[in-house]
Amino acid sequence: MSNYKEYKLGNSSACNLVGRPQKGTRTWRRNTSPLSFEAWLKQGMERYQKQGIVFELVTPSLMRIKRPGQTNLLRTCANFRNEYETEYLAKF
Fold first, then answer.
1. How much is the pLDDT for 92?
2. Are 19 and 6 in contact (CB under 8 A)?
3. Which residues of 8-43 are buried (b: 16+ CB within 10 A; e: fewer)?
4. Could you tell me the pTM of the whole model?
5. Long-range contacts of 5-14 (CB under 8 A, 24+ apart)
């Protein structure tokens, strides 16, 4: 049994969309079980890298985020973990 629900585009409750529309339809699949922290972080970084944002590991627990045309950010692993637990997991 699949752990995906299908939502038509335009549904405001469709967040955390994964995959692409199925061929010949405009249907997206929503993951109904949360990703692990590592998978969530990797997916988020890949999405932002496509937008031109650069992630630079300064120390094992500190990351510099270079945003084109904006100021740089410093985030710790604890910052990412807190966002994962308070914002992402709250959607499930």
1. 87
2. no
3. eeeeeeeeeeeeeeeeeeeebbbbeeebeeeebbee
4. 0.65
5. 5/29, 5/30, 5/32, 6/30
